[in-house]
Design brief:
Helix content is 43%, strand content 21%. It is of the alpha/beta class and 312 residues long. It has a single domain, classed as TIM Barrel (Alpha-Beta Barrel), CATH 3.20.20.30. The strands form 3 sheets. Strands 1-2-5-6-9-10-11-13 form an 8-stranded parallel β-barrel, surrounded by 7 helices. It has a two-stranded antiparallel sheet with strand order 3-4. Strands 7-8 form a two-stranded antiparallel sheet. Strand 9, helix 6 and strand 10 form a beta-alpha-beta unit. Helix 1 packs parallel to helix 10, helix 6 crosses helix 7 and helix 9 crosses helix 10. The longest helix is centred in the last third of the chain and has 19 residues. The radius of gyration is 19 Å and the shape is globular. The relative contact order is 0.13.
Length: 312
């Protein structure tokens, strides 16, 4: 087993909610100084009433950091038109000197979010596929023409292009076979959530088979995991903290997630992750529910140290 790359959340600012933008940016700098590999942020327009634009968040974080990777996990691409999103990504990639990773998912837990943006949630998968094709072309070709069911662009030129000639890496998030096929066709990685190690092994095999059929090199598509969890920092309420946050976020009881969302000591979290690393997981988004930004950084460092002991 190899030590995976570890990412932690950037946090989301909301002055009326008691979190100032400066707090989020300071936490990002502290995470970078502590040696964290990357930062990730979610994306919603109005998820049960709450929103946060992932690309706006990362543009601000990019301006105050120098080394850490910056990932949306996941960006709801189908809520937007791909042409302006392609430009936004290109500009953030230039600002960060090639550190942006566009993690894309289809979401759908709150259908009203989609209707609020004028999008039928039943179309989100197909819209995502068309958008990814358009964006890759805009990033890498001099001119783009595309005729799809949902998007049509003709003779479009775009500058600036991303910092990297090949464009921005795309990580596909999800659990379903549809997400695996999307990763095989368009992705540089698949970031799973709420899956078993067995499912990860199965996913690896399917992605390799389908990528080869698409004429792509399967070895260049990596595997990741986004892990809701809580690390015990001595107060003994890790499980309670995690359950409260997940129930508030998803409007569902914690027992629906508990199997895949552990709480415990850093060593217990590392032991939970070990089978995923054996299955080929190379990157973990540590979505830890801690008492604050500094505690989140310290929890990630503790988990990394525990992982280092079992992977060395």
């Amino acid at each position: 087993m190899q030590l995976p790359a570890l990412y932690i959340p950037t946090g989301v600012w909301s002055i009326r909610g008691g979190i100032a933008p400066q707090q989020v940016l300071l936490a990002a700098k502290e995470a970078e100084d502590a040696g964290i590999d990357g930062l990730f942020v979610g994306d919603h327009v109005t998820f049960y009433g709450a929103g946060s634009d992932g690309l706006i968040n990362l543009a601000a974080v990019a301006a105050v950091t120098e080394r850490v990777k910056l990932m949306t996990s996941v960006y709801l691409l189908a809520l937007r038109h791909p042409t302006p999103v392609a430009l936004q990504c290109a500009m953030i990639d230039q600002l960060s000197l090639g550190r942006l990773i566009l993690g894309v998912g289809v979401g759908g837990e709150d259908p009203n979010e989609w209707w609020a943006c004028g999008v039928d949630p039943k179309t989100r998968g197909r819209r995502t596929d068309e958008s990814l094709q358009i964006m890759r072309s805009l990033w890498t070709q001099e001119e783009t023409t595309f005729e799809g069911k949902y998007f049509q662009v003709r003779n479009v030129r775009m500058q600036p292009k991303p910092f990297r000639e090949e464009g921005v890496p795309v990580y596909i998030g999800g659990r379903s076979d549809a997400s695996l096929r999307r990763a095989a066709r368009f992705g540089d990685a698949w970031t799973s959530i709420w899956v078993s190690p067995r499912r990860m092994k199965e996913a690896r095999e399917k992605i390799h088979e389908w990528a080869a059929a698409e004429g792509r090199d399967p070895s260049k598509i990596s595997l990741g995991l986004q892990l809701w969890h809580a690390v015990d920092d001595g107060d003994g309420d890790a499980r309670e903290r995690l359950a409260h946050r997940m129930q508030a976020t998803y409007q569902l009881p914690y027992d629906r997630f508990e199997r895949y969302s552990p709480a415990g000591t850093p060593e217990q979290i590392a032991e939970y992750l070990a089978p995923y690393l054996e299955a080929g997981c190379a990157q973990v988004n540590l979505l830890a529910i801690q008492s604050g930004p500094q505690a989140t950084v310290q929890a990630a460092l503790a988990v990394r140290e525990a992982l280092r002991k079992i992977t060395s």
